[in-house]
Amino acid sequence: MNDPLHGTSLRGSPSGHMQMAPAATWPAVTENVENHVLSHGELKGRQDLPLYCNPLVIFVLNWMLMLVSLSFQITYVTYPNMGMPLLLAGLSLGSFLFGYLVSRTLLHRWPTRTQSLHYTLDVTRLWQASLLCCGAAVLIIVFNWVLSGPPPAIGDPSTYLTYGRFKQVLFPLLVVITVNSLLDSTRWRKVLFAMFGIAGMALYITRGLLMVSLLQMLFVFSLKTRMSKKKIYTIAVCCLALAVVAITLIGNARTAQGVFLEYLQIRHKYSDWPMAYLWLTSYISIPFSNLCWLFAKGNFHGPTLSFLYPLLPSFLTPPDPHASIHDDLTIIDGASTYLAGYVLDFSYLGVYLANMVLGIGCGWLMERALPKSILVAGLFLTCLTFIFFSDMFSPLSTVLQFAIQAAVQRKCFQWGGEPAESRVPG
C-alpha cells in the first residue's frame, strides 16, 4: 500500500512528482501558505474504481457472508433455523435498494456541474494536521497512564475494554493519523505517522481499531491510486490475508484458545480447526445469530431512543434499557450487527428504516462523494464493510472522525484547473 502520489502525472513539473528540498522534510509551521509544499495528481473516474469501492456490492456481500457463515452452525447456540435469517436478509436488501435507487434518481434530477478530477494536495497542511492530532493523542495517553497505570499492552491485558478515559476522542485521532499518513509525500513522515498511530492502537490492544485502520487505508489508497485494477485487486487480497493473520495473532495474544472456545460456545467438532478460520467465521456468524435471537426472544415495548446513546459521551450515557436481554445465554458477546439498536427500539420497522436510510446514504456517496471525497468516502465504506458486526456509523468516535476528515479534506485539497508546479519553502 505504499503508493505515494508519484504514480500520477504532472504537468509543468520537470521532476515528474514534486520538487522538494531535503530541508523541507519538516518545514516551519509558521510559514506562509504561498510556500507550502504542494502535490498534484488526478483521480480515476467512478466507473474505473474497483468493485469493492461500490457500496451496493459491499452491502450485498455482507449479507451473503452472514447467511453463509450462519449456515455452518459454528456454535452450540447459533440460531438453528434459516427462516428468520432469510426474512431479515430480504427485508434489508429490499429497503436498502429502495433508498439507494430513490436517492440516486433524485440526485440525477439535480446534477452538479462537472468538476475536474485534478487535485492539488497541500502536503504542509496535511502533516501539520497530523502533528496536531499526534499531540492531542499523546496528551490523552499520558493522562491515562498517570491516572490508571500503563496501557493494557504493557500492564494488564485483561483490562483492554475498561482501561482509560477519553477513548472516544483518542481512537479516532489514532485512526486519522494512520490513514492520512498514506497521503504524505515524504517517506519518512509517512512511516513515522503510520507507526505512531499503529503503536497507539497496539498499546490499547484494539484489534478492531487496527482492522478499521487497515481497511480504511485500503479504500483511500484504491480511490487515490492510478494503478491498474489487477494490481489493486492483488493488494486488496494481500490486505485481507494480513487482516486475517492480525486478527488471529492479536486474538490469541489476549484470549487463550480454551477460553475462546468456551466463551463463544464453539462446537466440539470445530475445536481443532485453525484459529484463523474460527475467529473469522465466528465474528461474522455470531452477531447475525444474536440478531435473530433478539427477534425470537425480545419483548418490544416501544421505542426508548437507546439507538441514539452511542452519540453521547461515555460519561453521559444512560443505562441501557435493553441490557437484560444480553443475559440470555444464546446472546454471545453483545454484538448483534448494525441493526441491533434499531431492532430493539422499533422491531421490524427498525430494520426497514435503518436500511432505507443507509441506502439513501450510499446513493449520495455514489452520486456526490465518489471519487473526490476520498477521506470521507474511505471512512464511509469502512463503516459499511463492518455492518456484519455492529453499527459503526452512529458512535461519537465515528462522528468525530468524519468531522476531522471532512476538515482535512476541505483544507488540504483543491480541485480543478491544470496542475501547477509544486512550491517549496525558500
Automatic annotation (TrEMBL):
Transmembrane segments: 56-76, 82-102, 123-146, 166-183, 195-220, 232-253, 274-296, 346-366, 373-390
Gene Ontology terms for molecular function: ligase activity
Domain of life: Bacteria
Spans annotated as Disordered: 1-20
Keywords linked to the UniProt accession: Ligase, Membrane, Transmembrane, Transmembrane helix
Protein name, UniProt field: O-antigen ligase
Native source organism of the sequence: Telmatobacter sp. DSM 110680
Lineage, broadest ranks: Bacteria, Pseudomonadati, Acidobacteriota, Terriglobia, Terriglobales
